[in-house]
Amino acid sequence: MLPHMKPPVRIPKPKFMSTVSSVVIVAVGFTATILLAQDNLDTLRQAAEQGHARAQYELGVSYATGEGVPEDDAEAVRWYRKAAEQGHAAAQYNLGVSYATGEGVPEDDAEAVRWYRKAAEQGRADAQHNLGVSYANGEGVLKDAAEAVRWFRKAAEQGRADAQFNLGVICANGRGVPEDDAEAVRWFRKAAEQGHAASQHNLGVSYETGRGVLKDAIEAVRWFRKAAEQCRADAQFNLGVMYANGRGVLEDAAEATRWYRKAAEQGRADAQFNLGVSYETGRGVLKDAAEAVRWFRKAAEQGRADAQFNLGNMYSAGRGVLKDDAEAVRWYRKAAEQGDADAQFNLGISYATGEGVPEDDAEAVRWYRKAAEQDVAKAQYNLGVGYANGVGVLKDYQLAHMWWNIAGANGAEQARKNRDILERDMTRAEIRRATELARACLDSDYQDCQQ
Q1: How many CB atoms lie within 10 A of CB 43?
Q2: Phi-psi sector, 352: left (phi>0), alpha (psi -120 to 50), beta
Q3: Tens digit of each residue's pLDDT (9 = 90 or more) over 244-275
Q4: 394-415: per-residue pLDDT in tens?
Q5: CA separation for the pair 418, 416 (Å, rounded)
Q6: DSSP letter (8 states) at residue 291
Q7: Which of 268, 245, 244 minimizes the C-alpha distance to 254?
Q8: Is the dihedral of CA 129, 29, 263, 255 positive or negative?
Q9: Sign of dihedral through CA atoms 200, 202, 207, 211?
Q10: pTM for the structure as a whole
Q11: Where does residue 366 rank: exposed (0-12), middle (13-18), buried (19+ CB within 10 A)?
Q12: Strand (E) positions, 23-126?
């Protein structure tokens, strides 16, 4: 049986994720100039009580913001409603926001939609955007992608950056309109040029992946940087990757680490993982196993399988933490259950050797098999050992030959040697059958491997 071998801590591959933000209701934007002097406030209230819609709206804003009067959301809603019922578009919008957020009135998405629609039909871009959000999410109305697009487009054409962003997302995903990457880029660019950070990030992704534009790593870096400087964690992570790999910029591990840290401190799990790798390998920072463990743990606790695997390795080796085989197994299991092949193999080793868990050859075989079916040659080799010796499974030379044959094809030289030695104790018919089994296993992408 193989010794307790563990794969090295893995360097992450470059990863570019659009992580397109979901459409959300934007905060109310007050447009009135509030006069704080008491005499002006008295005049405003008098005009509002006489039925002047603008005065009613501005008095509502005063109560919502606590400017000149005690903050009172319910009173704000009362005055918004008076102005809204007279057709004041800004008041209709704010009343919609109040219903959407439940500030001053019980939350009611359908009522929010009703007031957004009134304001939207008067051409208010913020209301058009929020009405698009309602249709996109099915909040207060039936979900309707085409209707969402219609309202986003109206707002976008008025220069509303969040609507331009959402329209870009919809074009990229083909929801409510035919998928069109070039059109998505067009809208992302319009919003990005207004400083919309999520659009700047997505425009960077477009340039890095060549979706909707010609690939251009320098341009990708430019847009990632703009978004990163606005504290977009996804852009900070991607900018770090660009520096780590010298794409669009000179390779600079220290700068990569700097951007990983910014994203990691915002809770970005992939950045936490990469920062852990930086500390483990000493790329861009001084090697520090304890710091590597700290960042791996943060990412692992968010469910990152690669971080869980690496954290298991750190516990197994006693690097940055006290050696603890049971804790290593706990983290290997979390990663293995998410399908991480290396963790599945290490979990198999743990059961085979009894390190961190009671020794259990059958359970070792179960985890080797899962890793073997993901093309892990060392797991395929260990399965061959199990079948050849009857450890954890019934002895079966044909299946031992099959797994060693497959492992050998995947580069495991010892597996090829073992296969050839095993053939001395097999008939030609058995060897032929074992070869057929290996071919069927590979042809089926490991779905037909004679369990």
Answers
A1: 13
A2: alpha
A3: 999 999 999 999 999 999 999 999 999 999 99
A4: 999 999 999 999 999 999 999 9
A5: 5
A6: H
A7: 244
A8: positive
A9: negative
A10: 0.86
A11: middle
A12: none
